[in-house]
Amino acid sequence: MATTLTLKSGTSWPDTWQRCLSVAPEAFRDDRVLNLWNASWQADGRTLPATSPVDGSPIAGPPRLDGVTAHQAVRAGLDQHRAWRHVPLEERRARIAATLDALAEHRELLAVLLVWEIGKPWRLAQADVDRAVDGVRWYVDGIEPMLDGRAPLDGPVSNIASWNYPMSVLVHALLVQALAGNAVIAKTPTDGGVATLTLACALAAREGVPITLVSGSGGELSQALVRAPEIGCVSFVGGRDTGAAVATAVADLGKRHILEQEGLNTWGIWNYSDWDTLSAVVPKLFDYGKQRCTAYPRFVVQRALFDEFLAAYLPAVRTLTLGHPLAVDKRDDPYPRLDFGPVINAAKAKELHDQIAEAIDRGAVPLYRGRPAEARFLPGQDTSAYVQPVTLLGPPPSSPLHHAEPFGPVDTIVLVDTEAELLAAMNASNGALVATLSTDDRSTYDRLAPQIRAFKVGHGTARSRGDRDELFGGFGASWRGAFVGGELLVRAVTQGPAGERLPGNFPDYQLMPSVG
């Protein structure tokens, strides 16, 4: 008989919220989170209601500021910046190190917040916190040579990031930027992560790190967070539509920028036979429901190998597990090990369902659909934000699934007969962050990989954003501005010798670093 699942002990949203109130009472009220600007927590902004993608229940919403107040926050950030840039490196390093210790101390609470706010399974929520802490420690330990001959920017760094990696992308960037001598400003993502970021920023602010954290509409705050003359650099992670508007603004102003945008990352199969290796990696590619910038939602497969590809792919995709990330058999059981939980919200789930239905209606062939009966849910819970894994063969050119990243657990497969078709299909989105080519012949890989328009191309293995000294960027429309990762992240947010050309993808030049 099936076991009735229950919520893991001590992980309810009310329990989690009370822990936030206890750990950082300066940043949380009984009914809301606060904005952080001018070095103090402010009970301003209009708080909007929010629900958890996990079960549709109410959680903390963002306290949205208006444009006028956002400009005040930016001006205060410039005052912080002018003071912080003169703080000796050893003191900056000590304050960042103390922040990392505090984040590590509250690792479990940050991870539970990530589960409730953006639906991350426990394993991946912990990994997001750990990657932030461990990644910044690498910079703390080795920052001196990276800053040799360099100075902070003239104004603070403004950060606008998507909701999917609040810790390992956004908090990581904030702390490295501050370590390099800049005050930092961040906008909470509209779709989730406000409490996670509030707690992390509270721990940093206690150590004297000059952080501003505000919420609001991107359109209303863009004048302050992107165009304001006080801003020294804009760092953006998100979709191409919003990113294009930011790119236009920073190009007009000649402002330093780092704009990471989506692209259709592809996995090519050509003259390949190591199917056991491919089968082992397929479930890992569905981590967090493919809601990440380095997900692989497209397989481009040599037609002659399609039967062997399916024999490896389908048994692997059938092993995927999804459901409520905190649902257990008994209240004191370990956290469940899931590949993914919900997508970010019910609206996104509906969008994906509609795109799948439309693609099939226009000729795509459904090869696999997960079965809802096998998902792990609490009795009677809201499941409107959950999407079962789906695999479609031949998405029609009229479908968004043909040319854009779905940002959900949807794989599409395109069959090709020639190397030219393979390359055209792998370059469908005018630039990508990562790609992989699985082929038995190394010389074939060496010949084709340089023609794939992705910043990182793996030979039979997945590529990722990377940590520590691994560089990161993108080709084409997937990236604008300075590349990051390793020493390049520090260079992107500091000033070097006169006339310096940063590696990156700029309106008037493209300069590529050496990458593996």
From TrEMBL:
The keyword Oxidoreductase applies. It holds the Pfam family Aldedh. Residues 43-488 form the Aldehyde dehydrogenase domain. InterPro entries: Ald_DH/histidinol_DH, Ald_DH_C, Ald_DH_N, Aldehyde_DH_dom. Gene3D superfamilies: Aldehyde Dehydrogenase, Chain A, domain 1 (3.40.605.10), Aldehyde Dehydrogenase, Chain A, domain 2 (3.40.309.10). One of its GO terms (molecular function) is oxidoreductase activity, acting on the aldehyde or oxo group of donors, NAD or NADP as acceptor. It comes from the Bacteria. Keywords: Oxidoreductase. PANTHER family: ALDEHYDE DEHYDROGENASE-RELATED (PTHR11699). This is Aldehyde dehydrogenase. It comes from Streptomyces asoensis. The lineage of its organism: Bacteria, Bacillati, Actinomycetota, Actinomycetes, Kitasatosporales.
